[in-house]
Write a structure and sequence with these properties.
Elements (H helix, E strand, L loop, with lengths): L9 E10 L2 E8 L5 H12 L24 H13 L4 H5 L15 E4 L1 H8 L14 E6 L4 E8 L5 E6 L4
Length: 167
């Protein structure tokens, strides 16, 4: 079945090894890029076919490579927690990045607790100095607790878009 084409960007391809019929390369590309498709297309252009034998992601957005964890490492931590009779979260939680790292590039709007409460109940709020359009990262209070993502509406108010549920 033919794949639907999409616009992607390949910023860089670095050839690390070319030995016999094997190629080892590193690709820096935009999101939505299928490396297997690039390899398949390369094999077609060379007239010999090609396939991926190993694929390793070394980076995603601004997430640090050094903080990435393999499935084997997670399983080892789970086994360690059982051996040491600890709650798995005691070992696993230290691996987590702050929740708002996924939206850290959005402009921050810090809400006083009263306005945050309204937003958390689905109400749009007026905030002086907020951007005029687009999405914003919502925080609350002096501690700047991340509460979710809002979007500027046509009335110049911040409407909740995706919120963190606190229980």
């Amino acid at each position: 079945m033919p794949r639907e084409s999409r616009k992607i960007t390949v910023y860089e391809i670095v050839l690390h090894r070319f030995e016999g019929d094997e190629v080892e390369m590193e690709v820096h590309c935009s999101k939505g890029t299928y490396i297997r498709t690039i390899v398949d297309d390369l094999g077609e252009m060379l007239g010999c076919g090609a396939h991926v034998t190993m694929l390793r992601r070394t980076g995603v957005a601004n997430y640090p490579y050094e903080r990435m964890v393999t499935l084997e490492q997670l399983e080892a931590l789970l086994e360690q927690a059982h051996r040491e009779e600890k709650a798995p979260k005691d070992l696993l939680d230290t691996l987590l990045l702050p929740m708002d790292t996924a939206v850290e590039n959005l402009p921050e709007v810090n809400l006083v607790p009263e306005l945050a409460d309204l937003v958390q109940h689905g109400q749009p709020v007026q905030v002086f100095g907020a951007p005029v359009d687009g999405q914003v990262r919502l925080t609350m209070g002096e501690e700047k607790i991340f509460i979710g993502v809002g979007e500027m509406n046509d009335d110049g108010k911040i409407a909740p878009k995706r919120l963190v549920v606190f229980r």
